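Issue 218. Parser rejects a valid record. Input:
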Amino acid sequence: MTSVTTTEMPGSTDAGTTILPSYLQDAWWTPDSPAGDATAVRDASTGQVVARVSTEGLDLAGALEHARTVGQASLGELTFHQRALLLKQFALALTERKDELYALSALTGATKADSWVDVDGGIGVLFAYSGKGRRELPNAHVYVDGAVEPLSKDGSFLGRHIYTRLPGVAVQINAFNFPAWGPLEKFAPAFLAGMPSLIKPATPTGYVTEAMVRILVESGLLPAGSLQLVSGSVPTLFDELRLGDVVGFTGSASTAASLRNRTPSGVRFTAETDSINASVLGPDAVAGTPEFDAYVRQLVVEMTTKAGQKCTAIRRAIVPTGQADAVVDAVRTRIEAKTVVGDPRDEGTTMGPLVSLEQRDEVLRQVQALVEGGGRIVVGSVDAPARDGAFFDPVLLRFDDAGADAVHTVEAFGPVSSLITYDTVAEASDIVARGGGSLVTSIATHDSAFAAAIMAGVAAWNGRVLFLDRDDARSSTGHGSPMPGLVHGGPGRAGGGEELGGIRAVLHHMQRTAVQGSPEMLTAITGVWHAGAAAIDDGTHPFRKSLAQLRIGDRIASASREVTLDDIETFAHFTGDTFYAHMDEEAAAANPFFPGRVAHGYLLVSWAAGLFVDPEPGPVLANYGLENLRFITPVSPGDSIRVELTAKQITPRETDEYGEVRWDAVIRNQNDETVATYDVLTLVAKE
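Output the parser choked on:
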């Protein structure tokens, strides 16, 4: 394998002979074959050769093994929080040099606004997963999922679920339309999970992905083997995969089906594919309402952003029969007023060309298929004047027959949408479902009853549903914008996968395993103290210990305190909580849950804090929360309570001089019955 440390960037004077490099085994690589044998990649507007792509002689098996060994080892040394911090640093490194990515993105036909969606959107995913990783994951290597499952009466045998990272490589096959966001939205959750990535971008726009990877490499932040890039085809890829690997694919439904059939047994395959997404105009959203205006505005945006080359774009505009003509007229007016098709580098251009001449020809074929299937063009034309570049004007078709197969099965992956009409909510829901599974459906309505009814009808057919009305139109991120914290994927034709979705996407790159054992063993495995495991009372109050001194299982067992009727009445009058169970003996006794007047649960929790707290200044900086509180046994006047507080989980914060300690709190009465259980959260100094 030939390694190079520098290469000409796409768009340079000798781009016609430049081979786009791959980044493999922590080094840049280009094939020894001459550039004439490689695939030419061209500027979408001018047709000029941008770069050439070839993988002749590439050691794919060696790259995968490098990820499984070197990449796994380097990422395995890091905790979730350490990986999360690196994601933030990656985002900052890309932000500093994003102008380079914008310049290259223009060669793909993307306008500045398109590039913002792609480049800044991808960077935003890194920031989002960095924040989520530090807030929602432990500063550890194991993620504990769900509650403890008691498996014995005496508590000596327990079970629970944990997630650990998969031992393979995350292979990410991306589409041409988002060469920055696409790879980053797959890379971020895989990296946070601790899986090394091998990125395979689409050839027509892979030079943008190469530049993005180059920035990350030159930052010096990447752990060894954690990220590799293949610029070009990988025909033997699926022959090299094995148990523990993951494939994440974005592209056409037909290609996804083919690759799924080639995926070896035991290799996880997830797909996000093209889908016939819909946007429904509610019956209340007549012309002149804010919802009608928002609907038209969003439809035109989705038709023209990235020249309609988005897997989330609106392909079916579903409108009430009486509003069809008004929608067509409004769409035509807005396109004529707002859309200027041209070279994205030209002043005033609002929509660039399709990614290639081949893609333009493919979109034209699909539009013709829609016309042959019953559609008629009502906005735009496919007979635009001849010009250089892969330009294609926005087109809206109208189908008089909502049952026509073509409108629900044929996707023209460009600035093309089709209008269909409905009369009832059941008809609208059925039309949405005819798409066979979608990434997203949006619904413009201010009628909550209609919203609830159509949601019940379309939810099962969609990965995401957006409701658009006068209250959220200005703040809505829009029909076609997947968000890091929400599911991106959908059933059926949409691929059946789930990218993004917050921490769920991280867990897709991990193995969920049921662990059974003693409390002591589960404590050792999970890093979380379990009731029944050893507790330590060494004579030093745990609140006097810094994080450096505190250990899981450190405990304080308090003295007892008697609860009197005066205490209950004082607390009731002081707080204003004079609920009858605390103040009326006869009414309380009639309640099936109480033996008579009882103490307030919050009185007991307050007293418990007084029983376990160490009041002097020290390592404990603040009590910032209480979780999972359950009241179990009522406390009557004359009863006594005591509390056991045990260090349950210790989470240092990587960038701060303190960390979080989760304490297991159990309040018991004089009969050793459990009165209440909860978790106390404190911030504790590291030293």
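Fixed in the parser; the record now loads. The first helix runs from residue 60 to 76.
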